Amino acid sequence: MNRYLPADVPAEQEATFLDNFKKATGDSGRLMLFAGDQKVEHLNNDFYGQDIPLEDNDPEHLFKIASEASIGVFATQFGLISRYARDYNTIPYLVKLNAKTNLIPYEKKDPYSQLWLEVEDVVQFKKNSGLDILGVGYTLYLGSEHEHAMLREAARVVHEAHMNGLIAVLWIYPKGNFVADQHDGHLIAGAAGVGAALGADFVKLKVPYVNDAFDVKGLQEVTTAAGRSGILCEGGDKTDETAFLQELHTQIHEGKSRGNGTGRNIHQRPLKEAIRMANMIHAITVENMTVTEAQEKYAQ
C-alpha cells in the first residue's frame, strides 16, 4: 500500500497522482515548495525596498530562479504562470487558486480569500499548454467569520485535485479578531488537524514559537496532529542563511515536518545567490543533506 495515495484518487488517475507526487518530492515524501504567490498577498512590499535587489521587482526573477534551481514545485497564481510559462515550460508548477491582499488589517475585518478559479480550469490549462502542473493550492483562514465558506472551498479543491491526479496543498493560517497568537503551537496543531480532515497532501503552516524562539516540541505536536498530511513550515522574513538552514534541518529531523514553503528567503537575493539558496534548501529537504553538506556542495 502506498501511504501517500489518497483513497479519493480514482483508479484511472492513481498512476498520474503517484507520478506527480514523486516528481514534486523527488521520491522522498518531502516537498520543497518555492513560494511565489506574494505578488498578491504582500503586494510589492516583498519585491522592492531596502536590502532587496532591484531584479526582484520584476516577476520574471521568480521564473528564472524556478527554472534554474532544484525545487519541488513553484507555487504561484494561474495568471502569472500564463504570462511567463511559454518561456519557462520546464518548471514544475503548483497553481494557487485563491489569494487576497494585505490592505485591510485583520483587526478591522476578518479575512476571506475567495476561490478565483476552479480545479477544472487548471486541468484544462495543463492539457492545452502541456505544462508540468503537478498540483494546486488554496489558502484558508481559521478563526475568520468566513471560515465556513473557505472550508467548503478547500474541501472541494482537495477532492477535485485528487479526482484529476493532482496533489493538493493547503495554506492554513489562524487569523482574525478571535485569534490572539497565530504562532501558538497548540493552535497551529489544530490547523494541522483541519488540513488532515480536509484531505490535504501537504499543509503549509506558521512555525510555532515560544518567547520568539522556535518551539520544537510545539512542532512535534503539529506534525503528529497532521497524521498522513505532510507539514510544510513557512519560511518567513529573509534571515541569515546558516540560521535559516539550521532551523529548517531541525524542523525536519526533530520536529518531523515534511518540507517547507519558502519565498522571501530565496527570491530576495540576486539571481545567482537565490538559485544557490534554493538548491541548498532542496538538498536539506529532499536529498537529506546536513547544513554543512549542502553549503559545501553549493559553495560560492
What descriptive keywords fit this protein?
single chain; 300 residues; alpha/beta; TIM Barrel; 8-stranded parallel beta barrel; two-stranded antiparallel sheet; 15% strand
Describe the structure.
By secondary structure, the chain is an alpha/beta fold. The protein has one domain: TIM Barrel. It contains 12 helices and 10 strands. The chain has helices spanning 14-25, 38-41, 60-68, 78-84, 119-129, 147-163, 185-197, 216-225, 241-253, 264-267, 271-285, 291-297; strands at 31-35, 73-77, 93-96, 133-140, 167-172, 202-205, 209-210, 213-214, 230-234, 259-262. The longest helix has 17 residues, at 147-163.
Spell out the blueprint of helices and strands:
Elements: H1 14-25, E1 31-35, H2 38-41, H3 60-68, E2 73-77, H4 78-84, E3 93-96, H5 119-129, E4 133-140, H6 147-163, E5 167-172, H7 185-197, E6 202-205, E7 209-210, E8 213-214, H8 216-225, E9 230-234, H9 241-253, E10 259-262, H10 264-267, H11 271-285, H12 291-297
The main sheet comes to: 8 strands, parallel, barrel
| CATH architecture assignment name | Alpha-Beta Barrel
What shape does the CA trace take?
globular
Terminal CA distance reads 43 Å
State the name of the first-level CATH class.
Answer: Alpha Beta
Kindly identify the CATH topology.
Answer: TIM Barrel
Kindly report the average pLDDT value: 96
CATH superfamily: Aldolase class I
Strand percentage lies at 15-25%
Rg over CA atoms, rounded to whole Å, is 18 Å
Helix content: 40-55%
Structural class: alpha/beta
Number of strands: 10
Strand order of the largest sheet: 1-2-3-4-5-6-9-10
How would you spell out the order of helices and strands?
Answer: HEHHEHEHEHEHEEEHEHEHHH
**How many distinct domains?**
1
User: Which residues sit in consecutive blocks of at least 5 with pLDDT less than 50?
Assistant: none
Tally of individual helices: 12
| Quaternary form | single chain
